[in-house]
Amino acid sequence: MFLTNQDVIELTAWRRRLHQMPELSGEEAATAREVEAFLASAGADRIVTGLGGHGVAAIYEGREPGPSVMIRAELDGLPIEEIADIPHRSTTPGKAHLCGHDGHMAILAALARGLGRNRPQRGRAILMFQPAEENGAGAAAVVADPRYSEITPDFAFALHNLPGLPLGKAALIAGPVSCASRGMRIVLTGKTAHASMPEFGLSPVEAVAALMPALTALGRGGPLDEGFTMVTVTHARVGEPAFGIAPGRAEIWATLRTLTDAGMKSLCGRAEALATEVANGNGLGLEITYHDVFRHCENAPEAVAHLGRALDAEGVQWDQGDLPMRPSEDFGHFGDKAALAMFFLGAGENHPSLHNPDYDFPDDLIGIGARVFMRTLRDLLG
Fold first, then answer.
1. Contact present, 95 and 75 (Cβ < 8 Å)
2. Considering only CA atoms, which of 214, 11, 208, 243 is closest in space to residue 104?
3. Distance (Å, whole) CA 230 – CA 221
């Protein structure tokens, strides 16, 4: 173990400090400053800030030529009120770290200390603190940042803690590991009328009543194989909350989910065709926009092999678990130019689920995650 007992105490305290100051996607300015301040004392050769918004990257150069290896964590919290009775509970009403990103940052902070004391022999290590994972915008924004081209990695690794999996056990597979998803917003436009004379307007009520079950029927889930599709209607609104007005406008929000990006292209086409058919059949205007777009995450076999060896070397039990998983992750954006792999680290079989209001990251995972990643870095970079 490359961390001292004092390191573990300080990293745990830092993780809990981050837990108290959550910020939402795209708003992580204070979190980024906190990260930058920590890295300033951890011996990085270079710190790049403002990547894709509030992203921060710490770079540790080796003495000899070699590959570039990136380890990634996320900066953002969630717009949920925390209810856990813990001393380090969120101090910001309506916002909390309920996905464990505070813990993921602490794992990278541990790596920063280790790399600062013992630099890579070759290549370079990049610790990427990425903004805006929760809304799917952050990884794409980082990759699109012109400065990212200066540090584009050959390998990229990440983890996510996973309640339901025994504490400290890992899950890892090659191939698709998390689904593609996107939010589809459908706006139907007609014409309002007096509630006593609806015939003089054009109501979207019948279109909404037809669309909601028809959208769901496009994909009802099932086995997570190549043909997996799921459509979940998450929100609907018709007209205004008034008894005297027949509605003239409606919205439907639906989350589309497929195992792969190719499947998402097909599902979007079918959903758009359905919405167009129903809108035209009812004489309504139609607008479709997409939000929170996540690509599927594909684990490269070569990168998986490196992680598997590191897990074995550190004595961490692992198998494929229940992977791939339905939830989405924007880490896949880094895979265009890097061999990437993400693994999942158990937070406990009875631990509150991700995004539950009483969730808190298990501090015991800081050391485990840091050991696995440091072993991976040393195997690749010396």
1. no
2. 11
3. 5
| Sign of the dihedral defined by the CA atoms of residues 213, 216, 218, 220, in that order | negative
Helix (H) or strand (E) holding 257, with range, is strand 249-258
Q: What is the DSSP string of 285-346?
A: EEEEEEEEEEPPEEE-HHHHHHHHHHHHHTT--EE-TT-SBSS--GGGGGGGTSEEEEEEEE
CB 270 within 8 A of CB 206: no
H/E run at residue 160 = strand 155-163
Question: In 3D, which of 344, 257, 343, 346 has the Cα closest to residue 300?
Answer: 343
Specify the DSSP element, H or E, that contains 207. helix 205-217
Give the span between the Cα atoms of 72 and 55, in whole angstroms. 11
pLDDT in single tens digits along all 382 residues of the chain: 899 999 999 999 999 999 999 999 999 999 999 999 999 999 999 999 999 999 999 999 999 999 999 999 999 999 999 999 999 999 999 999 999 999 999 999 999 999 999 999 999 999 999 999 999 999 999 999 999 999 999 999 999 999 999 999 999 999 999 999 999 999 999 999 999 999 999 999 999 999 999 999 999 999 999 999 999 999 999 999 999 999 999 999 999 999 999 999 999 999 999 999 999 999 999 999 999 999 999 999 999 999 999 999 999 999 999 999 999 999 999 999 999 999 999 999 999 999 999 999 999 999 999 999 999 999 999 9
- Whole-number Å distance between alpha carbons of 30 and 53: 12
Q: How far are the Cα atoms of 18, 38, 97, 100, 352 from residue 358, in angstroms, in the given order? A: 16, 27, 10, 12, 7
Q: Is the bond preceding 213 in cis, omega lying within 30 degrees of 0? A: no
